[in-house]
Amino acid sequence: MTGMARVAWAAVIALTLVAELAVSPRVMASGLPVDEVAQGVFVHRGVHEDASNANLGDIANIGFIVGGKAVAVIDPGGSPRVGGLLRETVRSFTDKPIRYLILTHAHPYHVFGASAFAADKPRIFGHAKLPSAIARRSAYYISTFTGILGVEAKALKPPAVTDTVSDRLELDLGGRTLVLRAHPTAHTDHDLTVFDTQTQTLWASDLLFRERIPVVDGSIKGWLRVGEHLSTISAQRVVPGHGPVSADWPEALADQRRYLEILVRDVRAVLKANGTLESAVATVGEEERPHWLLFDDYNKRNVTASFVELEWE
To answer: For residues 194 and 214, what is the distance between their CA atoms, to the nearest angstrom?
Structure first.
């Protein structure tokens, strides 16, 4: 990133923080810092980095919702240590039982903190395809994260899902209803969202990336379709999987939609011209470089996944 680009990003981040603080002041509790983005809805923002020993896999937005009788944790974080800190944060706000642990998808920085909540014996919810995704991927993820986290990785183990969602399911936290919805293949083939009906907060997780470049691990066409469906939800705010919470809904989808549509358009153009995967990887999406953090780390991967999907249209 050039010096001018760094200055531009610093300005964007500063303005974002000002806007966020005006709506949802950060609460400094024991454990992890969280923003109470709506009454009883607490979000901890992960850093815009790849997982490392230094950040302990704390790179995704995680948090919890407090009801009249119970607490639901939404994604326990990227390591047992992060999960433990999140649990400590919950306990600093309430002694209500943590009855539900909701996993939005299988990516390790969203789920590897689950073991920290074992003593609470929560029901663990996920998409109907989540158990098979965990079974397929956990050995690789644990092996990879062992190299990343070092000694912290000794406690890594895949979460055991107890309840699955194939379409729609409601959870009662005591005077507060959460609607869990399973989606067709998009970011992954097992994406789950959470909607808090009391505050009209949509927890989109990785179906929405902000500031940090989206990662295609399912279907780019499917993701665009699911994005259109999400845009019809009457939400007051959205919690993305990465980046700041937004009260500008559904406009918060615009940057991600633009990026994905550009990939589809440009990959199709390469295919129509009988171009190669190599030529697509070298050129597609480059106009989006100024708009996303970690662009060089993930754009080529996204182009490759899109090329493989679209060449069989």
So the answer is: 19
Question: What is the pTM for the complete model shown?
Answer: 0.90
- Where do runs of H (alpha helix) occur along the chain? 3-23, 80-93, 108-111, 130-149, 220-230, 254-272, 277-283, 295-310
Q: What is the CATH number of domain 3-254?
A: 3.60.15.10
Quick one: CA dihedral 81, 83, 87, 90, positive or negative? positive
Tokens standing for residue 31: 């454990």
| Three-state DSSP class for residue 206 | strand
Q: Which of 184, 311, 187, 191 is nearest to 256 (CA)?
A: 187
Question: Sheet holding 237-242: strands in order across?
Answer: 168-172, 177-182, 192-196, 201-209, 237-242
Contact 193, 104 (CB under 8 A): yes
Long-range contacts of the stretch 7-15 (C-beta < 8 A, 24+): 8/290, 9/293, 12/211, 13/211
Instruction: Tell me the residue type at 97.
Output: P
pLDDT digits (tens, 9 = 90+) for 3-41: 434 333 333 333 333 333 333 444 445 689 999 999 999
